[in-house]
Amino acid sequence: MTSLNRFLFTKIDNSPLLIFRIFFGILIALESYGAILTGWVKRTLVEPQFTFNFIHFDWIQPLPGYGMYIYFLLMGTLGICIAIGYKYRFSIISFTLLWTGVYLMQKTSYNNHYYLLILISTMMCFFPAHHGYSIDVKNKRVTEKDTMYAYIKWVVIFQLFIVYTYAALAKLYSDWLDFSIIKILLSSKAHYYIIGELLQQPWIHKIVGVFGILFDLLVVPALLWKPTRKIAFVCSIFFHLFNSVVFQIGIFPYLSLAFIVFFFEPDTVRKFFFKKKNAYIEGEFKLPAFKNTVLILGSIYFIIQMTLPLRHYFIEDDVLWTEEGHRMSWRMMLRSKGGTIQFKLVNQKTKVATSIPINYYLSKKQAQRIAAYPDFIWQFAQRLKREHAEKGEEVSVYALNSKLSVNGKPYRAFIDPKVDLANVPWNYFGHNDWILPSSKATAKK
Fold first, then answer.
1. Which of 122, 148, 363, 419 is the most buried (most CB within 10 A)?
2. Given this model, what pLDDT does residue 439 score?
């Protein structure tokens, strides 16, 4: 226990944390402002009649009118405040709450980095990232410090190790190992200038497939080990810039590069970014009063982080088919799905059946998603039920002709057409039996 305490609570130079705060603030400002400028806010939160929020978070809804534009402008401004260290605690806590709200109020545009941003923002609420090179120090709201406890560095590194390791393990399945999913993902990039045709070559698919697994599996250990650190750094730049250019996934590649400051020696970071900053080389070891709080909360947090990505193994059928256990599991760029579906609404009193025009209710992107995601299908049925209940009508909702294709495979029946989706509960932690078995599940029986 003494060695663990020394490992976690020895004081080190805080230069990596200070520069990461600056990078982090700039990146979340760009993410927030960019969401407005690229039309993401409009397409995802303004135009739709309703959003597919996370189940049981129906009370978190987009603001009406221009509200969501103001919401994202505010988040962007908070990002700038974080970067310059202005009222840092208020700014980072406010951003964390607002970003969590965005995450929970919609999942049509789900990305793993949206979830990662919540985790890192929450960590930053507790880190003393404003005790240097900040307006808070200049205005004497906080005292300037040159040190931080080592556990701050290791919390970030261990979180990244979990992300990358589970991402690598998730790729060890047939469609990645035979490169077929990579071919599908890159086929939509054929129109790219210069590189579009190159991305269609089978040998490129093999390189992307093999490098993707090896990078995710080895990058954290390679960055930690000094002899391989520079090589890993160069590989990281190439890997994340490739993802940024080809897959256009927002700030995630650049956030991943920003994390690398925690792997280099603090003195190296200080000399590169803060040449006038005082060096700290004493390595003082002193247990803080909040030591037990850090150990208890940290243990609980990382137990959750290590078990969440495993939950789909305990849910019936293939997660690629059911999506149950997919989110918050670092399963990145693993599938391409397409589906067909029709909804039939039956008035329970008159028994009159009506076909529901999906495009009337849903945006173009929502309509493309709904046939492939069971929770979307169930939520749409609940939406129809509520809408008719307001008119004094009790209805049943059925999914007809529901078929799904995963990674270009033949379409198969997806949702049980005999189940009234408006009147069945959602099983949040287990399998929903109205999702018909995949071919893999059928083969097991």
1. 148
2. 78
Question: CA torsion 158→160→162→167, rounded to 10°?
Answer: -160
Residues 370, 107 contacting (CB under 8 angstroms):
no
Ranges assigned E (strand) in 250-378: 337-347, 353-356
Q: How far apart are CA 81 and CA 206, in angstroms?
A: 44
Backbone angles phi, psi at 143, to 5 degrees: -85, 145
pLDDT of residue 342: 97
Q: What pLDDT score was predicted for residue 21?
A: 98
Q: Which helix (H) or strand (E) holds 292?
A: helix 291-307
pLDDT tens digits along 204-225: 999 999 999 999 999 999 999 9
**Selection from 381, 331, 6 nearest residue 168 by Cα:** 331
Cα 432 from Cα 374, distance rounded (Å): 9
Nearest to residue 119, comparing CAs of 295, 414, 330? 330
pLDDT of residue 1: 67
Low-confidence stretches of the chain (pLDDT beneath 70)? 1, 440-445
Please calculate the CA angle 100-106-108 and round it to the nearest 5 degrees.
135
Name 108's Cβ contacts closer than 8 Å, sequence gap at least 6.
44, 48, 51, 52, 363, 365, 366, 369
* CB-count exposure of residue 344 (10 Å: 0-12, 13-18, 19+): middle
Cα gap 379→370, rounded to integer Å: 10
Domain boundaries, the chain: 2-174+218-229+247-313, 336-444
Q: What is residue 255's predicted lDDT score, i.e. its pLDDT?
A: 97
- Any alpha helices (H) in 323-373, and if so which ranges? 358-361, 364-370
Residue-wise pLDDT for 332-343, tens only, equals: 999 999 999 999
Cα separation of 165 and 212, whole Å? 11
- Supply the pLDDT for residue 377: 98
Please report the pLDDT score of residue 366 as a whole number. Answer: 94
pLDDT value, residue 382 = 97
For 109, half-sphere exposure in the C-beta direction (CA atoms, 13 angstrom radius) is 19
Residues with Cβ within 8 Å of residue 412, at least 6 apart in sequence: 403, 404, 405, 436, 438, 439
Radius of gyration from C-alpha coordinates of the chain? 24
Q: Cβ atoms within 10 A of the Cβ of 232, count? A: 21
Residue-level pLDDT at 223 = 98
334, two tokens: 């693993």
* Reduced 3-state DSSP string for 111-166: CHHHHHHHHHHHHHHHCCCCCCCCHHHHCCCCCCCCEEEHHHHHHHHHHHHHHHHH
Q: Cα 257 from chain centroid? A: 16
